[in-house]
Amino acid sequence: CLEHDPSSPFPRRHRQYLKSIAKFKEVIPIENSELLSKIHQTYRVQYIQDVVLPTPAVFEENMLSTLSSFIFFNKVEIVSLIQEDERFLSELFHQLSGTDDDIPVERRRDLVLFLKEFCTFSQTLQPTSREAFFK
Question: What is the mean pLDDT of each run of 10 residues along the chain (135 residues)?
Answer without folding.
Answer: 69 71 80 91 83 63 78 92 89 82 83 91 87 84
